[in-house]
Amino acid sequence: MSHTSSGRLAPLMLSVLRIVTALIFLLHGTQKLFGFPATEQQPPLFSLMGLGGVLELVGGLLMLIGLFTRPVAFVLSGMMAVAYWMFHAPQNLYPTLNGGDAAILYCFVFLYFAVVGGGSLSLDALRGTGGKRI
Question: What parts of the sequence cross the membrane (predicted)?
Fold first, then answer.
């Protein structure tokens, strides 16, 4: 694939990354709030974990459709940083041992979306609010 053709695919692939990330992230919210997919973990709604579930659900849906991508991604990036330092890092120094590797990845992927937007297949791009910039 030439550099020119791969450059043309970049906005599309940015959208694909956003959609896949949002779908996986969204499942964390449905799991915490609705027990789907089935899990033992159903925190009270009015707890830090419950708030996390709401942010995962609402933020995941907004990221999925690419609406308000930059501010939503910024909030979710911060949420994942807090989740890592509050819940994972105290258990162990190494992310592979403390279970926080996904939180770190989400944090930086969302930070990336906060900077670049949602890509060409987003409601932001349709609204002309910068979804196409890379």
Answer: 12-30, 45-65, 72-91, 103-126
AA letter at 1: M
pTM to 2 decimals?
A: 0.90
Rounded Cα distance between 21 and 7, Å, is 21
User: Whats the size of the chain, residue-wise?
Assistant: 134
Burial track 73-110 (b if 16+ CB lie within 10 A, e otherwise): bbbbbebbbebbeebbbeeeeebeebebebbbebbebb
Task: State pLDDT tens for residues 4-21.
Answer: 677 889 989 999 999 999
Name the amino acid, one letter, at 77.
Answer: S
Q: CA 16 → CA 7, 74, 90, 134, distances in Å?
A: 15, 19, 34, 14
The alpha carbon of residue 66 and the mean position of all alpha carbons in its chain are separated, in whole angstroms, by 11
